[in-house]
Specification:
This protein is an alpha+beta fold. It is built from nine helices and 14 strands.
Length: about 280
């Protein structure tokens, strides 16, 4: 049975990161999940209803947000005798937190009798993830996706699925990166060979097709396999770009594909972690 623990943990980490969406404007950052407002990394006091008004305006930057929209957001179906006064008070609290002015607005512009508009440039960002956490997620996803795709292909069958991992192409201008492409190829072969329901062709047999111009169906026929893994590596300054795809033969079709972008300093870590 396929172990999903590592993958589930990595996905959970990414989901938590996505939930912590942050909107940046000027020197301010607003964390939408928690309602925390910061200016230059210093927390600014913001009451709940003031946060709701600011969040609503930031959802539609540069657009009119009507007073009725804000009433529904803040009070729902409740009836207030002095709704206008309550809303004006909350908006003034937002302006106070931002150091803004109704007469000379930098952030919140009043459209008389209609509503408000957020006029400053807005940028959505995400909190940074440390390198170790990023490595764990990428490697976990790579291992799960590669092994999982092949496991899916082989499930429900009694005979072993035959598969060959073709040498990764080095698409960078640096010929010294050939060792990384070859090492990555060998690591994937080793990992897939651990699956009992697969018959994986050895590295020595597939290396003859390095940079081969033969069509994939012919290569598969020469190796006697029904599925192929192929991919490429390229280097751009200090970044490495890896693509991997799983291809079925007869008929020829893509079963799975993924791309990975990593720092050049992680080359040996990728090889070691994928092999593990």
């Amino acid at each position: 049975m396929l172990d999903l623990t590592c993958f589930a943990g990595a996905v959970t980490m990414q989901q938590q990161r996505s939930e912590r969406r942050v909107v940046r404007f000027s020197s301010f950052e607003l964390e939408l999940k928690t309602g925390i407002l910061r200016q230059n990394n210093e927390r600014v006091l913001l009451q709940e209803r003031a946060f709701q008004v600011l969040a609503t305006l930031l959802e539609k930057p540069g657009e009119l947000v009507t007073r009725e929209e804000l009433r529904q957001r803040l009070w729902g179906g409740d009836t207030f005798v002095d709704f206008e006064g309550n809303l004006n008070h909350v908006v003034s609290k937002v302006r106070e937190a931002l150091g803004d002015s109704a007469n000379n607005p930098r952030f919140i512009e009043t459209l008389p009798r209609r509503g408000y508009r957020f006029v400053a440039p807005v940028e959505e960002i995400f909190p940074k993830v440390d390198r170790k956490g990023r490595q764990i997620f990428v490697v976990a996803l790579l291992l799960f996706a590669t092994v999982g795709a092949v496991w899916w292909l082989s499930s429900g069958r009694t005979e072993a699925v035959s598969l060959a991992v073709l040498p990764l192409d080095n698409l960078s201008a640096d010929p010294e990166q050939e060792y990384f492409a070859d090492g990555f190829t060998e690591a994937v072969i080793t990992e897939l060979a651990k699956i009992s329901s697969l018959r994986v062709i050895s590295r020595q047999s597939v290396m003859q097709f390095k940079e081969s111009a033969k069509p994939l169906p012919e290569i598969a026929a020469d190796l006697g396999v029904e599925t192929l893994v192929e991919g490429s590596v390229s280097k751009d300054k200090d970044q490495i770009h890896v693509t991997v795809q799983l291809i079925g033969i007869s008929p020829e079709r893509h079963l799975w594909a993924e791309t990975y972008d990593r720092h050049i300093a992680d080359i040996f870590a990728i090889q070691k972690e994928v092999a593990e």
